[in-house]
Amino acid sequence: MNIKALRLPLTKEELQSLNAGEIVSLSGACYTARDAAHKRICDALKNGGPLPFDLDGACIYYCGPAPARDGEIIGSCGPTTSARMDDYAPTLLECGVAVMIGKGRRSDAVTKATADAGAVYLAAVGGAGALIKNRVKACALHAYPDLGCEAVYKLDLQNLELLVASDTKGVCALR
Amino acid sequence: MREIDARILIEPLGALIGNALVGVDAATRALIKEAARAERSPAARWALGVIEENNEIAVRSRDFACQDCGLAVLFVSVGQDVHINGGLTDALNEGVKRGYAAARKSVADPLTRLNTGTNTPAVVHYDVTDGDKIAITFLAKGAGAENMSRVFMLTPSKGEAGIIDCAVRAVTDAGANPCPPVILGVGVGGTMEKCALLAKLALTRGVGKRNPDKRVAELEDKILEAVNATGIGAQGFGGGVTALAAAVETFPTHIGMLPVAVNIQCHSVREGRLII
User: How far from chain centre, in Å, is Cα B52?
Assistant: First the structure.
């Protein structure tokens, strides 16, 4: 299988070149956020509070990592179910989020909002946390430390293989 | 009458859970390997290969196979000839707390959403049996698959076809969310809560083991065939292996009822057994 190597942040052209169903190998910086962090980010947008990171062009990974062991940077860190973030995703896409990584289908509204924003949704293999841990070269607690595993971590990915689940044309590859 | 101190359960239960969370069930791993060979869809085959590699890495490096180490479900059979000194439930929860010490803590109050910080309390199902032993079965239930599980209150006229349809509907509606390939526990009969419990119990039988009742085993085969005909495939990428196994447990029900529960288990089967 032909695997396209990409480095974050992705350009508009790179985003547009991706087709649903193809596998890519992704490297570069992304931020973890799941249910609780999404709620806070959207509250901050509504109330004009500070944002944990620049949303424009950002890559968000729906993930709540297992704790790191002594001497390691992160624990198992596979994707969580993306659909739970569907209520928040259109708002974040409007703010420029370019890449979302997770697992499972999105609502039709999110797939459309993703395409309208020129963004993509990439699927990591669910239940592959131990393997994905080895694709993370740096991890730093970035915001909302009180949320524990639901805090925002900045990760430096190296060659994480993902399937393009929905693309800028609005095509979805998931059943 | 055998007399035991509840606290003797703590250490072995903690160790059992600690090991289960890194080592995906061997029978499931064998089925994944088989599926990876048989799968013709390239994307699904890729996903199955990633899962295989992940499970090897987890055992080798003692990493959690999945970061979602789940809610601890315990089936506890207590022999009626045992007298337990001290709180049994407290001891079980202490064992769970120790087993999850290094794991992600995934248990929260349902309303405040505040994390309990210990991955307790466990969901404990007690049963009284003959003898003087205590048997514990542990199953880690992650949110992705549990969220897609369903209860259907059918009318008796729906029969076997209706039961199969429940499994297909649950799996189809779930799509990629529960991390297919999945294992299905199907509870048929009893009442609303009984069939749900049977479905969960079916998941503890041992993946791939058929029901000893031939008629029920044939229903398991039909469910597996129908679910794999959906084409959802590994991770919802499209393919021939959506489920690795289906286990059905039955219980007599009311003449006017046909309750069916479909409990979905992801491919990351983390379970263990202990007899004291």
Answer: 19
DSSP B93: H
CATH number, position A42? 3.20.130.10
H or E segment to which residue B271 belongs: strand B271-275
CATH 3.30.1330 fits B144-268, yes or no: yes
Q: Is residue A60 part of a domain?
A: yes
B-chain residue closest to A163, CA distance: B43
Q: Where are the domains of chain B?
A: 2-20+65-141, 144-268
Is A12 among the domain residues?
no
Can you read off the two tokens belonging to residue B174?
């779930």
Structural element, H or E, at residue B183: strand B182-189
Contact status of B237 with chain A (Cβ, < 8 Å):
yes
Q: Torsion angle, CA of A137/A95/A141/A167, rounded to 10 degrees?
A: -30
Domain residues for the domain of A109 are 28-165
Encode chain A (175 residues) as per-residue pLDDT tens digits. 679 999 999 999 999 999 999 999 999 999 999 999 999 999 999 999 999 999 999 999 999 999 999 999 999 999 999 999 999 999 999 999 999 999 999 999 999 999 999 999 999 999 999 999 999 999 999 999 999 899 999 999 999 999 999 999 999 999 8
Question: For testing the chain B interface, which of A3, A125, A172 should be mutated: the one with the most B CBs within 10 Å?
Answer: A125
